[in-house]
Amino acid sequence: MNVLYVYDRVRTTSFTLVAQKHIEYMRKLGTVSVKEMPVYAFPLFKPDGRYVVVVHPFVYVWSVISSEMSDVVDIVEVMNRYEKIVGVYVCDTDRMSREAVNALNETDVLVVPSMFCVDVFRMSGVKKPVYRVPHGVDEHWYTAQNVWTAQGARGLSASLIQLYQYKQRTGKKLLLWWYWHSWIRKGGPWVKAVYERLSKMRSDVKLVVKTSMADVSELAELVPFGIVQVYGWLRDVEKMALYDIADVALMFSVGGAFELNGLESLARGVPTIAVDWGPWTEYIPPFLRVRPGERVKPLPDSNVHVGYGYAVDVEDAVAKVEDILDNYEEYRAKVDEWRRKVLYPQYRWDIVAKQLVSVISVNV
């Protein structure tokens, strides 16, 4: 079977990273031939054979072709060149817009990373078949030793080495929060509220914020309480090293389709706290979830993801962090058992690729 995989190869986004893992591991299977195609080249490509086309993220690509390139190509004609259209997409709230649903119904099959999104698509009016194909991590995320134990600081960035030395020197418990964009959706106001309380109650905690760039204006809200910022692109081993010195991960997103950083932190054995609502409940264990608090619109300006989500209840989240830190070895043992028995058999890219090929192959 010939697969044409269309994704954004100009900008590096979370969609790009997932697409590249799909392609890498589908090729390793050896059962499909995968050709990569940039978004803007796709409408101009004339296939010389039969292809199943995987479009990721579908609504974005559909929008680019139907608006920016409408004077060059007809989007319906472009899609009709292919044997089957597989749209890969997400749901960042509990409802999709009518415009997004109309686009999604132009596919033959849809792939989303969680059952939460399957339900959101169906409730929003998507009529085409929707399949859950979750995200994953490479197998070594589960099996590799702690980076600092295995190799020490060798080959790691100066900022990570300084963070490691800071922890060794002060004995601080590090709370890790990943923030690339979308202050509300990623839970910024509730990270602030929880950390403000914790910093007044305990002298042994420090919030570490991982950002994409140095100048992030929203962090001004956290600075008064004392934070450490790690920014820039991290290689795979450096990401693992960052998780390996974290004591607790705060995955406070109020919307999203999966939230890969939550899976990554659990794969490295880090207790990871999240609200007991949304797609991450499919992989975050019950003993690390906190009750829902405020109902909010994660993306108030979006014309695609137009629904709501839930923030963590601040009191419950503070209590959970304290309980973890005060009973740390017990929680680490429970997380280790969960990641070995529940996550490892399901959430690996090699397993995900098999599921994706199975979906693509239906009725081809």
* Structural Rg: 21 Å
What is the averaged pLDDT score?
A: 95
Query: Tell me about the biggest sheet?
Result: 6 strands, parallel
Poorly predicted tracts of residues: none
Helix content: 25-40%
Q: What is the helix/strand order?
A: EHEEHHEHEHEHHHEHEEHEHEEEEHHH
Morphology: globular
Instruction: Output the structural class.
Output: alpha/beta
Report the total helices.
14
Report the count of strand segments: 14
- Output the strand order for the largest sheet: 2-1-3-4-5-6
* Strand percentage: 15-25%
Topology overview:
Layout: E1 2-7, H1 14-29, E2 33-38, E3 52-55, H2 58-68, H3 75-79, E4 84-88, H4 98-104, E5 109-112, H5 115-124, E6 130-132, H6 140-143, H7 147-150, H8 158-170, E7 173-178, H9 188-201, E8 205-211, E9 227-231, H10 236-245, E10 248-250, H11 260-267, E11 272-275, E12 289-290, E13 292-296, E14 309-312, H12 314-326, H13 328-343, H14 349-361
Parallel strand pairs: 1-2, 1-3, 3-4, 4-5, 5-6, 7-8, 7-10, 8-9, 10-11, 11-12
Antiparallel strand pairs: 13-14
Give a quick set of tags describing it.
single chain, 364 residues, 6-stranded parallel β-sheet, globular
Tell me about this structure.
The protein is α/β, with parallel strands linked by helices. The chain contains 14 helices and 14 strands. The protein has helices at 14-29, 58-68, 75-79, 98-104, 115-124, 140-143, 147-150, 158-170, 188-201, 236-245, 260-267, 314-326, 328-343, 349-361, and strands spanning 2-7, 33-38, 52-55, 84-88, 109-112, 130-132, 173-178, 205-211, 227-231, 248-250, 272-275, 289-290, 292-296, 309-312. Helix 1 packs across helix 14 (349-361). It starts with a strand and ends with a helix. 41% of the residues are buried.
